[in-house]
Amino acid sequence: MRTFAAMVLAGLCQSVFGAVCATDDRGDQVCLEQPAQRIAALSPGATELVYASGAGEKVVAVVAYSDYPPAARKVASVGSHTRLDLERLIALQPDLVIGWVTGNPQAQLAALDDMGIPVFYIEPRSFEGVSSTIERLATLAGTEASGFAEADRFREGMKELAAAYQNAEPVPVFYQVWDEPLMTVNDEHLIGKVITLCGGNNVFGNLERLVPRISDESVLAANPEAILAGGMGEENRQWLERWAAFPQMAATRKDNLYFVPPSLIQRPTPRLLEGSRLFCEKLDQARSRRRAGEPGKP
Protein backbone atom coordinates (compact mmCIF):
# COMPACT_ATOMS: atom_id res chain seq x y z
CA MET A 1 0.00 0.00 0.00
CA ARG A 2 1.35 3.41 -0.90
CA THR A 3 2.09 5.85 1.93
CA PHE A 4 -0.01 8.98 2.34
CA ALA A 5 2.99 11.10 1.26
CA ALA A 6 3.42 9.07 -1.93
CA MET A 7 -0.28 9.41 -2.71
CA VAL A 8 -0.09 13.17 -2.21
CA LEU A 9 2.99 13.38 -4.45
CA ALA A 10 1.24 11.36 -7.16
CA GLY A 11 -1.74 13.68 -6.90
CA LEU A 12 0.52 16.71 -7.30
CA CYS A 13 2.05 15.21 -10.43
CA GLN A 14 -1.41 14.75 -11.92
CA SER A 15 -3.21 17.86 -10.77
CA VAL A 16 -0.93 20.74 -9.77
CA PHE A 17 1.34 20.37 -12.74
CA GLY A 18 -1.41 19.07 -15.04
CA ALA A 19 0.88 16.21 -15.99
CA VAL A 20 0.20 12.70 -17.20
CA CYS A 21 2.65 10.12 -15.88
CA ALA A 22 3.49 6.45 -16.37
CA THR A 23 6.33 4.16 -15.29
CA ASP A 24 8.24 2.50 -18.11
CA ASP A 25 9.84 -0.96 -18.25
CA ARG A 26 13.15 0.37 -16.91
CA GLY A 27 11.33 1.57 -13.80
CA ASP A 28 11.56 5.26 -14.70
CA GLN A 29 8.56 7.53 -14.36
CA VAL A 30 7.88 9.59 -17.46
CA CYS A 31 5.67 12.66 -17.05
CA LEU A 32 4.31 14.90 -19.78
CA GLU A 33 2.81 18.33 -19.22
CA GLN A 34 -0.13 17.23 -21.37
CA PRO A 35 -1.07 14.06 -23.29
CA ALA A 36 1.34 13.33 -26.14
CA GLN A 37 0.34 14.68 -29.55
CA ARG A 38 3.33 13.61 -31.68
CA ILE A 39 4.61 10.10 -30.99
CA ALA A 40 7.63 8.31 -32.45
CA ALA A 41 7.57 4.49 -32.18
CA LEU A 42 11.02 2.97 -32.61
CA SER A 43 10.20 -0.70 -33.23
CA PRO A 44 7.48 -2.51 -35.20
CA GLY A 45 6.09 -3.85 -31.92
CA ALA A 46 6.03 -0.38 -30.37
CA THR A 47 4.13 0.91 -33.41
CA GLU A 48 1.47 -1.78 -33.03
CA LEU A 49 1.16 -1.10 -29.32
CA VAL A 50 0.69 2.64 -29.81
CA TYR A 51 -2.05 1.99 -32.34
CA ALA A 52 -3.60 -0.56 -29.98
CA SER A 53 -3.65 2.11 -27.27
CA GLY A 54 -5.89 4.24 -29.49
CA ALA A 55 -3.15 6.77 -30.31
CA GLY A 56 -2.46 5.76 -33.90
CA GLU A 57 -3.45 9.15 -35.29
CA LYS A 58 -0.72 10.74 -33.16
CA VAL A 59 2.13 8.64 -34.60
CA VAL A 60 4.50 10.83 -36.65
CA ALA A 61 7.50 8.48 -36.92
CA VAL A 62 8.14 4.76 -37.15
CA VAL A 63 11.05 2.50 -38.17
CA ALA A 64 11.53 -0.16 -40.86
CA TYR A 65 9.11 -3.11 -40.91
CA SER A 66 6.40 -1.18 -39.05
CA ASP A 67 3.77 -2.71 -41.30
CA TYR A 68 0.79 -3.15 -38.97
CA PRO A 69 -1.79 -1.80 -38.89
CA PRO A 70 -1.72 -0.83 -42.60
CA ALA A 71 -2.01 2.86 -41.69
CA ALA A 72 1.46 2.66 -40.13
CA ARG A 73 3.01 2.08 -43.55
CA LYS A 74 2.16 5.65 -44.50
CA VAL A 75 3.99 7.18 -41.54
CA ALA A 76 7.47 8.67 -41.99
CA SER A 77 10.29 6.20 -41.34
CA VAL A 78 13.34 7.28 -39.33
CA GLY A 79 15.64 4.34 -40.03
CA SER A 80 15.68 0.91 -38.44
CA HIS A 81 15.31 -0.09 -34.82
CA THR A 82 19.08 -0.64 -34.65
CA ARG A 83 20.15 2.56 -36.43
CA LEU A 84 18.04 5.71 -36.19
CA ASP A 85 18.20 8.78 -38.39
CA LEU A 86 18.25 11.21 -35.46
CA GLU A 87 18.22 14.30 -37.64
CA ARG A 88 15.06 13.17 -39.40
CA LEU A 89 13.47 12.07 -36.13
CA ILE A 90 14.14 15.37 -34.40
CA ALA A 91 12.81 17.30 -37.40
CA LEU A 92 9.43 15.58 -36.90
CA GLN A 93 9.25 17.19 -33.44
CA PRO A 94 7.98 14.24 -31.36
CA ASP A 95 6.81 15.05 -27.85
CA LEU A 96 7.09 11.37 -26.86
CA VAL A 97 9.41 8.62 -28.11
CA ILE A 98 8.63 4.95 -27.48
CA GLY A 99 11.94 3.10 -27.17
CA TRP A 100 12.80 -0.59 -27.02
CA VAL A 101 14.81 -1.47 -23.90
CA THR A 102 17.21 -3.99 -25.50
CA GLY A 103 16.61 -3.35 -29.20
CA ASN A 104 17.31 0.35 -29.83
CA PRO A 105 20.77 1.96 -29.77
CA GLN A 106 21.10 3.23 -26.23
CA ALA A 107 23.45 6.10 -27.11
CA GLN A 108 20.96 7.52 -29.58
CA LEU A 109 18.07 7.30 -27.13
CA ALA A 110 20.23 8.92 -24.47
CA ALA A 111 20.91 11.76 -26.92
CA LEU A 112 17.17 12.31 -27.31
CA ASP A 113 16.77 12.38 -23.56
CA ASP A 114 19.60 14.93 -23.27
CA MET A 115 17.68 17.15 -25.71
CA GLY A 116 14.65 17.04 -23.46
CA ILE A 117 12.60 14.67 -25.63
CA PRO A 118 10.81 12.20 -23.31
CA VAL A 119 11.66 8.56 -24.00
CA PHE A 120 9.35 5.84 -22.67
CA TYR A 121 11.07 2.44 -22.73
CA ILE A 122 9.04 -0.71 -23.26
CA GLU A 123 9.76 -4.43 -23.45
CA PRO A 124 6.80 -6.63 -22.45
CA ARG A 125 8.01 -9.99 -21.11
CA SER A 126 4.61 -11.46 -20.16
CA PHE A 127 1.00 -11.53 -21.33
CA GLU A 128 0.05 -9.10 -18.58
CA GLY A 129 2.97 -6.96 -19.66
CA VAL A 130 1.38 -6.53 -23.08
CA SER A 131 -1.88 -5.31 -21.53
CA SER A 132 -0.05 -3.08 -19.06
CA THR A 133 1.99 -1.50 -21.85
CA ILE A 134 -1.14 -0.65 -23.82
CA GLU A 135 -2.68 0.93 -20.73
CA ARG A 136 0.41 2.99 -19.92
CA LEU A 137 0.72 4.22 -23.51
CA ALA A 138 -2.99 5.14 -23.48
CA THR A 139 -2.43 7.11 -20.28
CA LEU A 140 0.43 9.09 -21.83
CA ALA A 141 -1.57 9.72 -25.01
CA GLY A 142 -4.84 10.57 -23.29
CA THR A 143 -6.67 7.71 -25.03
CA GLU A 144 -7.59 5.69 -21.94
CA ALA A 145 -11.09 4.68 -23.05
CA SER A 146 -10.03 2.80 -26.17
CA GLY A 147 -6.64 1.72 -24.87
CA PHE A 148 -7.90 0.18 -21.64
CA ALA A 149 -10.69 -1.61 -23.54
CA GLU A 150 -8.14 -3.17 -25.92
CA ALA A 151 -5.89 -4.15 -23.02
CA ASP A 152 -8.81 -5.93 -21.33
CA ARG A 153 -9.78 -7.69 -24.58
CA PHE A 154 -6.27 -9.13 -24.87
CA ARG A 155 -6.08 -9.94 -21.15
CA GLU A 156 -9.38 -11.85 -21.14
CA GLY A 157 -8.60 -13.64 -24.40
CA MET A 158 -5.32 -14.98 -23.07
CA LYS A 159 -7.00 -16.07 -19.82
CA GLU A 160 -9.64 -17.99 -21.79
CA LEU A 161 -6.96 -19.68 -23.88
CA ALA A 162 -4.96 -20.64 -20.79
CA ALA A 163 -8.08 -22.16 -19.20
CA ALA A 164 -8.85 -24.15 -22.35
CA TYR A 165 -5.37 -25.76 -22.42
CA GLN A 166 -4.58 -26.10 -18.73
CA ASN A 167 -5.00 -29.90 -18.87
CA ALA A 168 -3.73 -30.48 -22.42
CA GLU A 169 -1.45 -33.46 -23.11
CA PRO A 170 2.18 -32.25 -23.18
CA VAL A 171 3.87 -32.07 -26.59
CA PRO A 172 7.68 -31.70 -26.85
CA VAL A 173 8.18 -28.57 -29.00
CA PHE A 174 11.03 -26.80 -30.76
CA TYR A 175 10.34 -23.24 -31.86
CA GLN A 176 12.73 -21.79 -34.44
CA VAL A 177 13.01 -18.02 -34.12
CA TRP A 178 15.83 -17.57 -36.63
CA ASP A 179 17.65 -19.52 -39.33
CA GLU A 180 21.27 -18.43 -39.70
CA PRO A 181 22.44 -18.69 -37.00
CA LEU A 182 19.88 -21.20 -35.78
CA MET A 183 18.11 -19.73 -32.74
CA THR A 184 15.29 -20.63 -30.39
CA VAL A 185 13.76 -19.28 -27.16
CA ASN A 186 13.79 -20.37 -23.53
CA ASP A 187 10.85 -20.62 -21.13
CA GLU A 188 11.30 -17.03 -19.92
CA HIS A 189 10.77 -15.59 -23.39
CA LEU A 190 7.25 -14.49 -24.28
CA ILE A 191 7.11 -17.13 -27.04
CA GLY A 192 8.23 -19.69 -24.48
CA LYS A 193 5.26 -18.66 -22.36
CA VAL A 194 2.99 -19.26 -25.38
CA ILE A 195 4.42 -22.77 -25.73
CA THR A 196 3.67 -23.46 -22.07
CA LEU A 197 0.19 -21.94 -22.29
CA CYS A 198 -0.68 -24.28 -25.18
CA GLY A 199 0.47 -27.36 -23.28
CA GLY A 200 3.80 -27.60 -25.05
CA ASN A 201 7.09 -28.65 -23.46
CA ASN A 202 9.85 -26.42 -24.82
CA VAL A 203 12.78 -28.78 -25.43
CA PHE A 204 15.19 -25.85 -25.00
CA GLY A 205 13.22 -24.15 -22.25
CA ASN A 206 15.92 -24.55 -19.59
CA LEU A 207 18.68 -22.77 -21.50
CA GLU A 208 19.97 -19.64 -19.78
CA ARG A 209 19.71 -17.10 -22.58
CA LEU A 210 16.32 -15.76 -23.71
CA VAL A 211 17.22 -16.36 -27.36
CA PRO A 212 19.99 -18.99 -27.42
CA ARG A 213 21.94 -20.15 -30.44
CA ILE A 214 21.75 -23.89 -31.03
CA SER A 215 22.80 -26.48 -33.64
CA ASP A 216 21.03 -28.95 -35.89
CA GLU A 217 22.59 -31.70 -33.82
CA SER A 218 21.06 -30.38 -30.60
CA VAL A 219 17.61 -30.31 -32.22
CA LEU A 220 18.03 -33.90 -33.40
CA ALA A 221 19.17 -34.97 -29.93
CA ALA A 222 16.14 -33.26 -28.33
CA ASN A 223 13.86 -35.07 -30.82
CA PRO A 224 10.85 -32.72 -30.60
CA GLU A 225 7.42 -34.07 -31.51
CA ALA A 226 6.50 -30.76 -33.15
CA ILE A 227 8.53 -27.99 -34.78
CA LEU A 228 7.04 -24.54 -35.27
CA ALA A 229 8.77 -21.72 -37.10
CA GLY A 230 8.25 -18.28 -38.56
CA GLY A 231 10.33 -17.27 -41.54
CA MET A 232 11.60 -14.44 -43.72
CA GLY A 233 8.11 -13.16 -44.45
CA GLU A 234 4.52 -13.81 -43.51
CA GLU A 235 4.05 -16.72 -45.93
CA ASN A 236 7.53 -18.18 -46.23
CA ARG A 237 7.79 -21.78 -44.95
CA GLN A 238 11.39 -22.19 -46.13
CA TRP A 239 12.83 -22.56 -42.63
CA LEU A 240 10.91 -25.80 -42.17
CA GLU A 241 12.47 -27.42 -45.24
CA ARG A 242 15.75 -28.13 -43.47
CA TRP A 243 13.96 -30.43 -40.99
CA ALA A 244 12.33 -32.52 -43.73
CA ALA A 245 15.81 -33.94 -44.34
CA PHE A 246 15.72 -35.73 -40.95
CA PRO A 247 13.01 -38.43 -41.18
CA GLN A 248 14.30 -40.06 -37.99
CA MET A 249 13.13 -37.08 -35.95
CA ALA A 250 9.65 -37.44 -34.43
CA ALA A 251 8.37 -34.09 -35.72
CA THR A 252 9.37 -34.94 -39.29
CA ARG A 253 8.19 -38.55 -39.13
CA LYS A 254 4.76 -37.44 -37.87
CA ASP A 255 4.57 -34.48 -40.29
CA ASN A 256 4.36 -32.02 -37.41
CA LEU A 257 6.29 -29.20 -39.11
CA TYR A 258 4.18 -26.07 -38.73
CA PHE A 259 4.48 -22.51 -39.95
CA VAL A 260 3.22 -19.59 -37.85
CA PRO A 261 3.35 -16.08 -39.41
CA PRO A 262 6.17 -14.38 -37.47
CA SER A 263 4.40 -11.08 -36.79
CA LEU A 264 1.66 -12.97 -34.92
CA ILE A 265 4.02 -14.61 -32.48
CA GLN A 266 7.27 -12.63 -32.42
CA ARG A 267 5.87 -9.19 -31.57
CA PRO A 268 4.60 -8.47 -28.04
CA THR A 269 1.33 -6.95 -29.25
CA PRO A 270 -2.41 -7.79 -29.09
CA ARG A 271 -1.99 -9.93 -32.22
CA LEU A 272 -0.14 -12.35 -29.96
CA LEU A 273 -3.62 -13.60 -29.00
CA GLU A 274 -4.26 -14.63 -32.61
CA GLY A 275 -0.79 -16.15 -32.86
CA SER A 276 -1.28 -18.08 -29.61
CA ARG A 277 -4.57 -19.51 -30.82
CA LEU A 278 -2.87 -20.67 -34.01
CA PHE A 279 0.03 -22.10 -32.03
CA CYS A 280 -2.35 -24.04 -29.79
CA GLU A 281 -4.23 -25.37 -32.84
CA LYS A 282 -0.97 -26.72 -34.30
CA LEU A 283 -0.18 -28.56 -31.08
CA ASP A 284 -3.73 -29.96 -31.10
CA GLN A 285 -3.00 -31.38 -34.56
CA ALA A 286 0.14 -33.02 -33.18
CA ARG A 287 -1.91 -34.56 -30.37
CA SER A 288 -4.47 -35.86 -32.86
CA ARG A 289 -1.76 -37.51 -34.94
CA ARG A 290 -0.26 -39.05 -31.83
CA ARG A 291 -3.62 -40.58 -30.95
CA ALA A 292 -4.19 -41.73 -34.52
CA GLY A 293 -0.73 -43.25 -34.68
CA GLU A 294 -0.08 -42.02 -38.18
CA PRO A 295 1.09 -38.85 -39.92
CA GLY A 296 -1.39 -36.46 -41.49
CA LYS A 297 -1.41 -33.29 -43.48
CA PRO A 298 -0.58 -29.84 -42.03
Describe this structure in words.
The strands form four sheets. A four-stranded parallel beta sheet has the order 4-3-7-8, sandwiched between helices. Strands 10-9-11-12 form a four-stranded parallel beta sheet. The protein is elongated. It is built from twelve helices and twelve strands. The chain is of the alpha/beta class. Strand 5 and strand 6 form a beta hairpin. Helix 5 packs antiparallel against helix 6.
CATH superfamily of the largest domain: Nitrogenase molybdenum iron protein domain
Helix content: 25-40%
Report the CATH architecture of the largest domain: 3-Layer(aba) Sandwich
Integer-rounded radius of gyration? 21 Å
SS strand fraction: 5-15%
The strands making up the biggest β-sheet line up spatially as 4-3-7-8
Mean pLDDT across the residues is 91
Coarse structural class: alpha/beta
In the CATH scheme, the class of the largest domain would be Alpha Beta
Largest β-sheet summary: 4 strands, parallel
Please write the string of helix (H) and strand (E) elements.
HEEEHEEEHEHEHHEHEHEHHEHH
Number of strands: 12
Shape: elongated
Unreliable stretches = 1-16
Describe the secondary-structure layout.
Elements: H1 4-14, E1 20-23, E2 29-32, E3 39-41, H2 44-52, E4 59-61, E5 79-80, E6 83-84, H3 86-91, E7 96-100, H4 106-114, E8 119-122, H5 127-141, H6 144-164, E9 171-176, H7 190-197, E10 200-202, H8 216-222, E11 226-229, H9 238-241, H10 250-253, E12 257-259, H11 262-265, H12 272-292
Keywords: Signal
Domain Fe/B12 periplasmic-binding: 38-291
GO biological process, one term: cellular response to iron ion
